[in-house]
Amino acid sequence: MKNILIICEDFVSSNMGGVGIRYWELARVLARHCKVSLLVPNETDLVSEEFKVIPYDRQKSDLRPFAEGVDVIILHGYVLHFHPYLLDLHIPFAVDLYVPHLFETLVSHAQDDFTEWLPAYCEYLRVQSELLRAGDFFFCASERQRDYWLGWLHAVNRINPHTYQQDASLQKLITVVPYGIPNMPPRQQKHALKGVHPGIAEDDQLILWSGGLWNWLDPLTLIRAVAQLAEDHPRLKCYFMGTRHPNPIVNEHMTMPQQAMELAEQLGVLEKAVFFGNWVPYQERENYLVDADLSVMTHPNHIETRFAFRTRLLDSIWAKLPIIVTEGDAISEWVERKNLGLTVPAGDVQALVKAIDNILAAGGKAAFASGFERVGSLLHWDKVAEPLVSFCLAPSQAADKGHYMTDIERISRDKDAFLQQVIRDKDAFLEQVIHDKDAVIDDAYRQIERYRNSLPLRVYYRIKRLFRMK
Q1: Is 430 a domain residue?
Q2: Are residues 396 and 427 in the same domain?
Q3: Are strands 174-176 and 294-297 parallel, antiparallel or unpaired?
Q4: DSSP 3-state assignment of 297?
Q5: CB–CB of 207/292 below 8 Å?
C-alpha cells in the first residue's frame, strides 16, 4: 500500500474554508486506496479513523520525519518555500494549483503602497515559479485553469521534449481535479435559519451566500438588489454564511465584510432583510443549505474571476439550490449550459433584481431540479479525485527532472565558468609577470657580470691593488 503525505497550509477544523475542506475530502478519498497522513497548520478538533491528522507549524516544523518512507507528497502554496529541504528527499510531488493565488493578491493589495507591495509581489512570483519547477504532477480545478497553468509551465520549461514524449496530451503533467461534493445528498437535522434565526420566518424566501466575503467578490451588488426588492417582497431575506475566515492569516487584507455590513446598514436592511453569520461549521452547512431557496454569488469583472473556481457554490449544487452568479467564471458556464440557474452581468443591480424575481416566480428549486440531477453524480469527490488517486497508486518523478537547468542554475553555471576562467587568466598573467621579472633580473646580472669582466674594470682593480701594496 502506498504511503501518501498531504501538507495543507489552511486551517482544517470544524470551522474551515474551501482549501481546508478540499484537503480533508481528498484525504478521505485517498485513504480508501493508500495510507494517508494529513498535516494541518493548526490544532484541530477533527478526528478521522481513515487517516492520520497531524498538526504542524507552517513555518518552523521539521517535516522530514513525516516524509520518511512516503511515496508521494501532495502540497500547495508556500510549503516548499518554508520547507525547501523536502526537495532533497527526491519524493514525487503532486502539486495542487486550484487557487489562482496571484490574481487574488492583485485584488487584495490593489490599494497598497507600491513601494511595499511590489517587492512582495515579486516574491510571490518567485515562489510560484519554484513550485512549478519542483512538481512532478500538477492538478487544478477546471479546464480554463489548466490552460492558464499550461502557459506558465511552458514558460518555466516544464513543457519540453521529455514531457511531450512522455504524453503528448500532457495529462500526465497536469490534469483537472475539480472541487467535489459528497456522494450522499444533504440531510437537514434541524432548521438553521428559517423560524430559528431572529428576523427570518419559517415561510420566508431565503437567498443564501454560501461562501466568504472576499475582496475579489461583490456582495455589495446583492445587498443593493435585496434592498430594492425588500419593499415589494417583505418575505425575501438574504443570509451571508461566512463573514470572517477561521484562519486569521486570510483576514489580514479582507475589507469586504466591513464594507458589506456598512452598506446594509446605510440602506436600512441590516438585520431586517440582510443578515450576516460568523462562519458555519462544515458539518452543519447542510442545515443552512436545505433551508435556502436560492443561492447567489456575484463578483466584479477582473482577471481573478476568469480563472477562479467558486468552491462553495459546489455546496449549492449539492443541495440543488438554483444559482444566480455573475458571468465570467467557470461555474457560470455550468449554470448556463446545465440549466442550474441564471447568470447576470457584473455589477448590474437591475439584472440581479430581475433574475431573483424570475427564479422565485418560476417556483425556485423545482424549476431547476432536472439540471442538478444530471450534474451531481459527476462531481462526487471519489469521481473528481480519480486522476490524483491514479498518480498516487503509480507515482513517478516527471520525465524531464534532471535534464534541464533553470535560469538561476544556468546563470550560476556560467558565473562559475567565468570565475574559473578569470582565475586561470590571473594565474597565467602572474606566471608571465614572474617570468618576465626573472628574465629582467637575469639580464641585469649578466650585464653586471659582463661589466665586471670588462678590460677597463680589470685594469682599474689591478692599479688599485698595486697602490694598496705600496
Answers
A1: yes
A2: no
A3: unpaired
A4: strand
A5: yes
